[in-house]
Write a structure and sequence with these properties.
Layout (H helix, E strand, L loop, with lengths): L2 E5 L2 E4 L4 E8 L6 E9 L5 E8 L5 E3 L7 E6 L4 E6 L8 E9 L12 E2 L3 E6 L1
Parallel strand pairs: 2-11
Antiparallel strand pairs: 1-3, 3-8, 4-5, 4-9, 5-6, 7-8, 9-10, 9-11
């Protein structure tokens, strides 16, 4: 019912910036409650990064990215963005966006219904 496509990943030096995009489409896009960004580093589990209500009125960030990352959305484009500044090597991971339909989920990845394919972010020292 919802398809999510991430883009914007790449290789950047520590201290640099990247902007990730998550484009949503499908029959039930209008029923999305929240979109979240998650990441998974090699050998580690999936980690919450940030989330935004589809309305854009509510945002929440993991402590590890507060002050550095900003989540936003463009309702006209059905797209959620993750602006990542002051990147650190420990930010290296595959970043995925996820959507919850009809339920105002939060930081638990298991509570999200649809997932994108992920985009690689690599931060060199």
């Amino acid at each position: 019912q919802v398809q999510l496509v991430e883009s914007g990943g790449g290789l950047v030096q520590a201290g640099g910036s990247l902007r990730l995009s998550c484009a949503a489409s499908g029959f039930t896009v209008n029923r999305i409650s929240r979109v979240g960004w998650f990441r998974q580093a090699p050998g580690k589990g999936r980690e919450f990064v940030a989330t935004i209500s589809w309305s854009g009125l509510s945002t929440y960030y993991a402590d590890s990215v507060k002050g550095r990352f900003t989540i936003s959305r463009d309702s006209a484009k059905n797209t959620v963005y993750l602006q990542m500044n002051s990147l650190k090597p420990e930010d290296t991971a595959v970043y995925s966006c996820a959507a919850s339909i009809g339920v105002n989920t939060g930081v638990d990845p298991l509570a999200y219904h649809y997932w994108g394919q992920g985009t690689q972010v690599t931060v060199s020292s």
